[in-house]
Each structure stands twice: as C-alpha cells, then as structure tokens.
Design a protein that fits this description.
Layout lengths: L4 E4 L9 H11 L3 E7 L11 H8 L5 E7 L7 H6 L4 E5 L6 H10 L3 E6 L17 E5 L14 H14 L5 E5 L7 H7 L3 E4 L1 H4 L3 H14 L1
Parallel strand pairs: 1-8, 2-3, 3-4, 4-5, 5-6, 6-7, 7-8
Helix pairs in contact: 1-8
Bound molecules: D-xylitol-5-phosphate and zinc ion.
C-alpha cells in the first residue's frame, strides 16, 4: 500500500455553490484543495483569483494547493500567501527567473512546487530540485478542466521518480489533468503521490467520488 494525497480541483465545481462543494470534499476526506488560477495569458482561460480563495480560507481547513497558471507569477505570491495558500506551484514556462520565484515562495514560509507542461522536458528541473517541495506534472495542456489524460505523462512520472530516488530528494510528485477512477492506479504505479482530480470528483456525488478515490489506493 502506498499512501497518496487527493487534491480535488475546484475548477470543476459549480461556483454558485462553491462553499458546499468544498465542504463536501473536505468531509469526505480530501487532503488538499487544488486551486487553479488562470490569467487568460499563460493559458487561454480566466478562472478566479486570490479574493475567491480568501473566502474559502475562512471556512476550510484543507491544505490549499495553489496552481498558478499565470505569466510571471512572482507578481502575485504575496497576494496568495495573504489569501491563505499553503503550497504555491508555478510553471517553468511562465517564469523568467524561476529560481528567484521559488526562493520568494520559500521566504514567504510556503511550500514551493514547479510545474511542467506536457512538452516540457524534466531537464528544466535540473538546477532547481534542491529548492522545491513538489513537482507538478501536467497530464493535459493547462487551461481547461475535463480534458483527456495524455499517456506520455506516465513515462515522465516514472523518469521523475527515478531521478528523485537516485538523488535522494524529498519531493512530492503531483499529477494534474484527466485523472479518473479508471486511470488513477496507473498514475500511482508510475510514482505519483499527489493526485489532482476535477471532473472526476465534482461531477455526480462528491462524497462517493472522494471515497472511491480513497479506496483505490488500497488496491494498488
Ligand atoms: C488544467 C487544470 C487542472 C484541471 C483538472 O488546466 O490545472 O487542475 O482543472 O481537471 P480535470 O480533472 O477535469 O482534468
Ligand atoms: Zn491544476
């Protein structure tokens, strides 16, 4: 049995009833709340920003896992810290100065993650491994919920797991995009230990979905 953390993505929630959705996921045993922030520049769509997250922070004790799909996220780190972030993940492709950005996240006392788009090679991480707590492997092109899982991501997860083991690093492997109850086992077997799921958690019965994800790992 390998433990993993489930991070439901509120991008797939009904925003009219956002609080209820978050509460349902929390009560069902979700570990993180995955918060997808999109700026309409780094990715095509615009989602929501720090003020929305701040409202959720008042009512939820979940670990807030903030995925910044924005250009030059260094501009917004304080805002998200202020709004209650626990983990902030930035994209290598969106940062002119990745090391400076990651250092600033750490200076704010938060956990730092770095994300790679599907076509971005792992070698981008070579000189940043020592400074980060998590790598987020995108298994879809960021920008929208409800897309299909790109199978090549499995090879990337396996290679990353090897690097982390070989370098003896303490880094989480989070995977995001198109994960459902059918393919989650493969993703876990490849080496992931944090699973993001939007559509698969928030469509239908949230509690049943979270419970089903949670029971999948016992069979892995
Ligand atoms: C994609 C987002 C993902 C996505 C996950 O841009 O970063 O977090 O919303 O949603 P599903 O699980 O529906 O692919
Ligand atoms: Zn995400």
């Amino acid at each position: 049995i390998r433990m993993y953390k489930l991070a439901p993505s509120i991008l797939a929630a009904d925003f009219w009833r956002l609080g209820e959705y978050v509460k349902a996921a929390e009560e069902a045993g979700a570990d993180y709340l995955h918060i997808d922030v999109m700026d309409g520049a780094f990715v095509p769509s615009i989602s929501f920003g720090a003020p929305v997250m701040k409202s959720l922070r008042k009512e939820s004790k979940l670990i807030f896992d903030v995925h910044l799909m924005v250009e030059e996220p260094i501009r917004y780190l304080e805002d998200f810290k202020e709004a209650g972030a626990d983990i902030i993940t930035v994209h290598t492709e969106a940062c002119k100065h990745l090391h400076r950005t990651v250092s600033r996240i750490k200076e704010l006392g938060l956990k730092a993650g770095v994300s790679l788009n599907p076509s971005t090679p792992l070698t981008e991480l070579e000189y940043i491994y020592q400074d980060i707590d998590m790598v987020l492997i995108m298994s879809v092109n960021p920008g929208f919920g409800g897309q299909s899982f790109i199978p090549l991501a499995l090879d990337k997860i396996k290679s990353l797991k090897e690097v982390i083991t070989q370098k003896q690093l303490n880094i989480d492997i989070e995977v995001d995009g198109g994960i459902n109850l059918v393919n989650v086992a493969e993703v876990l077997e490849a080496g992931a230990n944090v699973i993001v799921a939007g559509t698969a958690v928030f469509s239908g019965d949230i509690k049943e979905n979270v419970a089903a994800f949670k029971s999948t790992f016992t069979r892995v």
